[in-house]
Specification:
It is a single chain. The chain has 97 residues and is mainly alpha-helical. The protein has 5 helices and no strands. The longest helix has 25 residues. The chain is globular, with a radius of gyration of 17 Å.
Length: 97
């Protein structure tokens, strides 16, 4: 039983590393690290619902953000929320300078 579980876990780790090596995923995470607001969870869920997709759980959104789970649809929503936040900050700076 332990050997089977060990084989399964090694496949999970390998798959996880493979997906993390994609340059577009790295760029997406670098972007959200810089621009994602603290209140990203509810904003991300709202973004996904706007697209007509079922709402993910808050923990699933956090797990994608923390690179525990890889879901491109949620990662895309995180990038969109980060981009909206970046644009809002730039507009505030422009209006207040």
């Amino acid at each position: 039983m332990l050997l089977i579980l060990s084989k399964y876990m090694s496949k999970l780790i390998n798959n996880s590393n493979f997906k993390e090596d994609n340059s577009h995923n790295k760029k997406a995470y670098e972007f959200i690290d810089k621009h994602l607001p603290v209140t990203y969870v509810d904003l991300t869920i709202a973004c996904i619902i706007k697209k007509g997709q079922p709402a993910p759980s808050k923990s699933l959104v956090r797990n994608v953000r923390n690179k525990t789970i890889f879901r491109n649809d949620i990662l895309l929503a995180l990038v969109e929320v980060a981009n909206e936040n970046k644009e809002a900050i730039e507009k505030i700076k422009l209006l207040t300078s």
